[in-house]
Amino acid sequence: MASKIPQLQSKVNQASQIVAKNGASYYKLLLEQNKHYIQDPPTIEKCQSLANQLFYTRLASIPLRYNSFWKELDHAKNMVKNWQDLNRENVGFAALFGLECFAWFWGGEIVGRGFTFTGYHV
């Protein structure tokens, strides 16, 4: 593992040189391609107005998301009631979803412990 550190450092160095060389042109290209999203002039009042629009738009979407949640829950309840009708594909999706939830939980636990596996810093 320690022998790979110089190789990793050289790759990181190469990547940072590419970003330093091409970063400004990429930034300009990105702004040019998305200029229709940019508010002119960029004032504090306009930013506050956009923030309020986003907040209240998301607030207004809560009932739709709430109804969608209950529909999904009813569908899941029906699948559990009729478990004999499930095919391999549905069972596979459920197993993958459970595995993904477990992996995210496990990863979060590791991050919460400061990227340690057993409590000792590696």
From TrEMBL:
Coiled coil: none annotated. GO terms for cellular component: mitochondrial membrane; proton-transporting ATP synthase complex. One of its GO terms (molecular function) is proton transmembrane transporter activity. InterPro entries: ATP_synth_F0_gsu_mt (IPR006808). GO terms for biological process: proton motive force-driven ATP synthesis. Belongs to the ATPase g subunit family. This is Mitochondrial ATP synthase g subunit family protein. It comes from Phaseolus vulgaris (Kidney bean).
